[in-house]
């Protein structure tokens, strides 16, 4: 099973959002040394929870300071932007790191409605143009002409080059799965958003409706999963409390900085809130490195996924680094990376 990293540049209490970006740069270098296949960064706006507003810029910084790992977006929220501009950005990134750039595309706003309009004054109809945007972007990013009769058919996205970013469709519903199938693109299901609900249906729709393309001859599925590894299960349970408290707020529409386990322990929760957090614990993947590796392998096997991208959000950056290290060791990534080196 191929393992990758998803990073949201999580904002935490006691540190600035700018520090979260620098922690992402450091974690990417560690992920490469550990043998992870990809390092994907997310896009969120006007959020006190995530600092990653411009994945294309963060990708460039990571690509310039790594040598092997694929780097990409998970994803660029395409309705906010002109397809040509996104194609140009990722053509530049492909020039920086040829053969290592992934362009993951999503349709969700990654923000509240007002912020979506601030990003694109036509936000009320932009999502409806998602398939047409993908059609045009695929042509521009690969150096092909747009469809006959298109007013921008002769416009090119520079810089041209011999390699092309690998385009993915990301989603947490059947819609994204169907779009990925129609265009013959690899598909990543956002398991961490739905806690797995709807994953089987979306992946089945993707596989059933898949049409081979120049990029991909057969369906290719990844799932992005929240998971946490620690040296002991007890330590993993303690670190998990930050995620559970954040999840409680998220489900109320509150996107706040991630609290430390000590801050969570000091907060007074109602019985109903504690019950909600316990329910979150029951659907979380956590434990020792070996336990997490087994759970991820079982999940991927059950869904027929070819890859798993792991999102780990904890307050302590050293604990997050340790989590990815333990998982890499338990999955055999570290030894493979040493052999490759």
TrEMBL record:
GO terms for molecular function: oxidoreductase activity, acting on paired donors, with incorporation or reduction of molecular oxygen. Pfam families: Bac_luciferase. It comes from the Bacteria. SUPFAM superfamilies: Bacterial luciferase-like (SSF51679). InterPro entries: Bact_Lucif_Oxidored, CmoO-like, Luciferase-like_dom, Luciferase-like_sf. One of its GO terms (cellular component) is cytosol. Residues 1-305 form the Luciferase-like domain. To bacterial alkanal monooxygenase alpha and beta chains. PANTHER family: LUCIFERASE-LIKE MONOOXYGENASE. This is Luciferase-like monooxygenase. The lineage of its organism: Bacteria, Pseudomonadati, Pseudomonadota, Alphaproteobacteria, Acetobacterales.
């Amino acid at each position: 099973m191929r393992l990758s990293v998803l990073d949201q540049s999580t904002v935490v209490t006691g540190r600035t959002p700018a520090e979260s970006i620098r922690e992402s740069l450091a974690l990417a270098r560690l992920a490469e040394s550990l043998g992870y296949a990809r390092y994907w960064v997310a896009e969120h706006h006007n959020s006190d929870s995530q600092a990653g507003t411009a994945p294309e810029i963060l990708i460039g910084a990571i690509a310039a300071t790594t040598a092997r790992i694929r780097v990409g977006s998970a994803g660029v929220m395409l309705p906010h932007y002109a397809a040509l501009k996104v194609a140009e950005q990722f053509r530049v990134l492909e020039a920086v790191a040829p053969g290592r750039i992934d362009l993951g595309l999503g349709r969700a706003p990654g923000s509240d409605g007002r912020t979506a309009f601030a990003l694109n004054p036509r936000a009320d109809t932009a999502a409806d143009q998602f398939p047409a945007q993908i059609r045009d972007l695929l042509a521009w990013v690969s150096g092909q002409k747009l469809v006959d009769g298109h007013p921008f058919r002769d416009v090119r996205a520079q810089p041209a080059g011999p390699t092309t970013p690998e385009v993915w469709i990301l989603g947490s519903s059947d819609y994204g799965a169907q779009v990925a199938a129609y265009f013959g693109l690899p598909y990543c299901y956002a398991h961490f958003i739905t806690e797995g609900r709807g994953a089987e249906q979306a992946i089945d729709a993707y596989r059933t409706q898949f049409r081979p393309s120049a990029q991909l001859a057969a369906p290719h599925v990844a799932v992005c999963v929240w998971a946490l590894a620690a040296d002991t299960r007890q330590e993993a349970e303690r670190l998990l409390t930050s995620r559970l408290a954040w999840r409680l707020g998220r489900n109320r529409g509150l996107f706040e900085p991630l609290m430390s386990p000590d801050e969570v322990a000091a907060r007074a929760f109602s019985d109903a809130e504690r019950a909600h957090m316990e329910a979150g614990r029951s659907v979380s993947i956590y434990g020792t490195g070996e336990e997490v590796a087994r759970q991820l392998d079982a999940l991927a096997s059950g869904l027929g996924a070819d890859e798993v991208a792991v999102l780990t959000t904890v307050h302590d950056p050293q604990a997050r680094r340790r989590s990815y290290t333990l998982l890499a060791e338990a999955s055999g990534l570290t030894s493979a990376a040493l052999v490759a080196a």
